[in-house]
TrEMBL record, chain A:
NCBIfam families found in the cross-reference section: oligo_HPY (TIGR01727)
Location(s), subcellular: Cell inner membrane; Cell membrane
Listed Gene3D superfamilies: MetI-like (1.10.3720.10), P-loop containing nucleotide triphosphate hydrolases (3.40.50.300)
Secretion signal, residue range per the UniProt entry: none
Listed transmembrane segments: 12-34, 77-103, 115-135
Family the UniProt entry places it in: Belongs to the ABC transporter superfamily. Belongs to the binding-protein-dependent transport system permease family.
Positions of the ABC transmembrane type-1 domain: 75-264
UniProt name for this protein: Peptide ABC transporter permease
Membrane topology field: Peripheral membrane protein; Multi-pass membrane protein
From TrEMBL, chain B:
Protein's name according to its UniProt entry: ABC transporter domain-containing protein
Subcellular location: Cell inner membrane
Organism the protein comes from: Sinisalibacter aestuarii
Residues of the ABC transporter domain: 4-251
Name of one Pfam family that matches: ABC_tran
Family to which the UniProt record says this protein belongs: Belongs to the ABC transporter superfamily.
Source organism superkingdom: Bacteria
Keyword line: ATP-binding, Nucleotide-binding, Transport
Spans traversing the lipid bilayer: none
Membrane topology category: Peripheral membrane protein
PANTHER family named among the record's database cross-references: D,D-DIPEPTIDE TRANSPORT ATP-BINDING PROTEIN DDPF-RELATED, TRANSPORT ATP-BINDING PROTEIN
Length: 623, 318
């Protein structure tokens, strides 16, 4: 709750809205005990007194009634009607929305078409029609305003519910023996409540305005009872001669609606989890680089050379050391595998190369990334942008989320080509077809007009690879490119990547958690654990003679086909959180060979020129 | 004893047809299939995305109404209308452990639901049962007051398994229970499942796309392709001597340490279009052994070898 308030008040305008609204609400609440004149007593002798005249702070209206008194009583009534209407609309509308969204199918169809019909009328006409049918009066105005706003809630809440109803925890609740009513009340409702509150906070303002509108037309509160709308309506005839009678209620309506809307926006921003996680603070175009220590000197290793790279995430007071002094290099035509479990820092290492880690919260705090000797971390945004895709290209795990759903794949390929090379459209299109051919998509001439959703997962990933190849890069960084694919498709994609690197001399950094994939594709492999490289060397050597206990035991965990039914080796415990790493070896708490020395001080990567390990009790002595 | 018997079970999803219009055609997600699972046995169900394995699983637990067919558990036919009747006999462990737990409920509330709804236990009995179950799945009791987002994938999956156990079912359907987990944690969960099967004499249906995982836990294996059973048999025989070319393709595609990289089939083959299904054998378009007959006649499951069955006109030699 305090974090909610803190977030809310970080938005200045919302804070102003909250203060104004609180003041108005307070005034409305204490109106009955204030020493005010009776709002309904007429005194025609005193009509149209100006503001600040004796006895009438805001003057009097056309019947000589005290405007201040009428204003406060009127505000009280308008607020009450608006809030009650919002509550009624929210309750009925959300109820309809949840039922429609949960049951889906025909129920949903019938309910929502009914709601659509309600929405098809201009809302003020609909409200007028309802009041006309029920007769004028404040209660009927309330019913009309509530009814008009039901569709808004119904549609909003239905949308959220449809997403939730397909979630697995709803299925689980059904299997636990819960009935429909119970699922709606105890499983769905708590999850949509925040949406209802947000929708309500943004609509109360409208509803007050709509009630005022009906009263202005004489269909809401009946004389002599005052509400803001009827006050305006009565003052209309004296608009030119005595403007203050209209201005006073007008300003009050303005203040109420404005403050509610400002506060509502603030509430929405503070409650919406997507906005709370910082989606409103757009990440920078390049990861922030804030190197404290010395930049390592160029050591002429490889085409792409990552030296002592440190990338951290600064979230509040916590510092997550996602990548901790990682050094890797890759040569032309070589495939380097980076293997590790989730949270080991393998993806962040890859994204750091081209400054693609989201900042905030990501910060590169040390090391260098050299491409042909040039330090990319020191490069300007323009020079980095020219290299992205042109020299170093990425292939991501999920092709469905990396391709734009609304553009044809051909157009996306052409865009990728034209981003770096000024070529005419026809030439770019020919090149796009050529690329699709290169990744072995059948009928590229017609496939180029497909939208991403018209392709299978394997075909989409081929488009992702084609896009990475579009500008003939020298290095491709593939982040789990086959994890989302079926095995038969995975085999096709892997052999495609292997052919491409042999044909074009591509350097590939292949990030995966699968030893089988590494064994088939990569020349060298680096094993990562808790943000550090724990072992690096030629693939064959590491697979046959792993030196680090983690590598050895991780390999043992992977079931291999042909082993039959059996007990599998497991590593007890969980990988550590990188915000709070123990000194020494991060794997020590899970390691059977750990001694006291393992948890004291830094352990260096040591070994031969090709095979290195970060362990003081390695499985194999590397000399 | 037969724990689960399925006869001619199928599911066709209607497509098109709005409020008033009638659905014109349908996608046959699961074609009529029959199989049995013995008590205490683990049946592995293998297939690629779109083969109908999740649709089959959802029908078996009553989350989806079958189009045709019957399900019998321990020789009693199931009443499709009552989900609670399903719940006591057959439970489901979901693929994504975090999304299967309601984010707004504590673990205790989640664990209590089946005990309260299916068995009507009072508060004290419920706590006792939860303690027993948590002990068997190696979870600490202090977790009970926490919310799902506080757990790692492996812990959340253990909570999912604990919830399934709370219903004291005869059969548990495990739908890709480890595919969202890290390798080192995956082995922990698989071993736990094997232990629980012994302890509670459970019957498992283990669905996965990972052949090596399925092989490591299954007694028998059923291979699905395009909504049909193409091969079924004892685990060791199915992978040692696959009879259906698709089974062989699957086994050859799995990346294995020490095997050279080669695409096991043409590089442009794709799954058949469910909206426009091919006649004859659905695999014919990808099959190196396909002949004229495969394109016209749909192959039936027939016994090959001692316990193996395959649906193929030109099965591989044993």
């Amino acid at each position: 709750m305090t974090t909610f308030l803190k977030l809310l008040f970080r938005n200045r305008l919302a804070a102003v809205g909250a203060v104004v609204l609180a003041a108005i609400l307070l005034l409305a609440l204490i109106t009955p005990i204030l020493p005010l004149a009776d709002p309904d007593v007429t005194a025609t002798a005193d009509r149209f007194q100006r503001p600040f005249s004796t006895g009438h702070l805001l003057g009097t209206d056309h019947l000589g009634r005290d405007l201040l008194s009428r204003l406060l009583w009127g505000t009280r009534l308008s607020l009450a009607v608006g809030i009650v209407a919002a509550l009624v609309a929210a309750t009925i509308g959300s109820g309809i929305g949840i039922v429609a969204g949960y049951f889906g199918g025909r129920t949903d169809n019938i309910i929502m078409r009914g709601v659509d019909m309600l929405m098809a009328f201009p809302y003020i006409l609909l409200a007028l029609a309802i009041v006309a049918a029920l007769g004028p009066g404040l209660m009927n105005a309330l019913i009309a305003v509530a009814a008009v706003n039901i569709p808004f809630f119904a549609r909003n809440i239905r949308g959220v519910t449809v997403g939730l109803a397909g979630r697995e925890f709803i299925d689980a609740a059904r299997l636990a023996g819960m009935g429909h009513t119970r699922i709606i009340l105890t499983e769905l409702l708590p999850n949509v409540l925040s949406t209802i509150v947000i929708a309500m906070s943004t609509t109360v303002g409208w509803m007050i305005l709509e009630t005022a509108g009906l009263s202005f037309l004489g269909l809401g509160s009946q004389p002599p009872q005052a509400d803001l709308g009827s006050m305006l309506g009565e003052a209309r005839s004296a608009l030119i001669t005595n403007p203050h009678t209209s201005v006073v209620p007008g300003i009050m309506i303005f203040l109420i609606v404005m403050s509610i809307n400002l506060l509502g926006d603030g509430v929405r921003d503070a409650l919406d989890p997507r906005l709370r996680s910082g989606a409103l603070t757009r990440p920078r175009a390049v990861t922030l680089v804030d190197r404290r220590g010395n930049v390592p000197h160029a050591d002429q290793k490889g085409l792409l050379n990552i030296q002592q790279l440190e990338t951290q995430f600064h979230v509040g007071p916590r510092v997550y050391r996602a990548v901790n002094k990682v050094s890797l290099h890759v040569n032309p035509g070589e495939a380097l595998g980076v293997i590790g479990e989730s949270g080991s820092g393998k993806s962040v290492t890859a994204l750091s190369v081209m400054g693609l880690v989201a900042s905030p919260p990501g910060v590169i705090t040390g090391g260098a990334v050299r491409y042909e000797g040039e330090d990319l971390l020191a490069a300007s945004y323009d020079s980095l942008r020219r290299k992205r895709g042109n020299n170093v290209a990425y292939i991501f795990q999920d092709p469905l989320s990396t391709l734009h759903p609304l553009y044809r794949v051909g157009d996306q390929l052409i865009e990728a080509i034209q981003a770096h090379h000024k070529v005419p459209d026809a030439e770019a299109k020919a090149r796009a077809i050529e690329l699709l051919k290169a990744v072995r998509i059948p009928n590229p001439e017609s496939r180029i007009r497909n939208f991403p959703h018209e392709m299978s997962g394997g075909m989409r990933q081929r488009v992702g690879i084609a896009m990475a190849l579009a500008n003939d890069p020298d290095v491709i960084i593939a982040d789990e490119p086959t994890t989302a694919l079926d095995v038969t498709v995975q085999a096709q994609i892997l052999s495609l990547l292997d052919d491409l690197r042999r044909e074009r001399g591509l350097a590939i950094i292949f990030i995966t958690h699968d030893f089988g994939v590494v064994a088939q594709l990569c020349d060298r492999v680096a094993v990562m654990y808790a943000g550090r490289i724990v072992e690096e060397g030629p693939t064959a050597t590491i697979l046959e003679h792993p030196a680090h206990p983690y590598t050895k035991r991780l390999m043992a965990c992977v079931p291999e086909l042909g082993g039959g039914k059996r007990e599998l080796a497991a590593i007890p415990g969980l990988p550590p959180v990188v915000s709070d790493l123990p000194p020494g070896c991060a794997f020590a708490p899970r390691c059977t060979k750990a001694t006291e020395a393992c948890q004291q001080g830094e352990i260096d990567l040591a070994g031969t020129a090709t095979h290195t390990v970060r362990c003081i009790h390695p499985e194999e002595e590397l000399a | 004893m037969t724990a689960l018997k399925v006869r001619d079970l199928s599911k066709t999803f209607p497509i098109g047809g709005g409020l008033l219009g009638r659905a014109r055609a349908g996608v046959r997600a699961v074609r009529p299939m029959s199989f049995e699972v013995q008590t205490g046995e683990t049946l592995g169900i293998v297939g690629e995305s779109g083969c109908g394995k999740s649709t089959l699983a959802r029908m078996l637990v009553g989350l989806l109404e079958p189009t045709t067919g019957r399900i019998e558990i321990e020789d009693r036919p199931l009443d499709n209308a009552d989900p609670a009747a399903f719940g006591k006999l057959i439970q489901y462990v979901f693929q994504d452990p975090v999304s299967s737990l309601n984010p707004r409920k504590t673990i205790k509330q989640i664990m209590e639901a089946p005990l309260k709804r299916l068995y009507g236990l009072d508060a004290e009995e419920r706590m006792g049962r939860i303690r027993e179950i948590f002990a068997s799945v190696n979870l600490r009791e202090e977790f009970l007051d926490r919310y799902p987002h506080e757990f790692s994938g492996g812990q959340a999956q253990r909570i999912g398994i604990a919830r399934a156990l709370a219903a004291a079912p005869r059969i548990i359907i495990l739908d890709e229970p480890v595919s969202a987990l890290d390798v080192s944690v995956q082995a922990q969960v698989l071993n736990l499942l094997a232990g629980l099967r012994e302890e509670f004499n459970l019957t498992y249906l283990f669905i996965s796309h990972d052949l090596a995982v399925v092989e490591a836990v299954s007694d028998r294996i059923m291979v699905l392709y395009f909504g049909s059973v193409v091969e079924i048999g004892p685990a060791e025989e199915v992978f040692k001597t696959p009879r259906h070319p698709y089974t062989k393709l699957l086994a050859d595609s799995a990346p294995v340490v020490g095997r050279a990289l080669s695409a096991p089939e043409q590089k442009d083959s794709e799954l058949p279009d469910p909206l426009n299904p091919p006649t004859g054998c659905a695999f014919a378009g990808r099959c190196p052994r396909a002949t004229e007959r495969c394109l016209t006649a749909e192959p039936e499951l027939k016994p090959l070898g001692e316990h193996q069955l395959a649906a193929c006109h030109h099965p591989l030699e044993g």
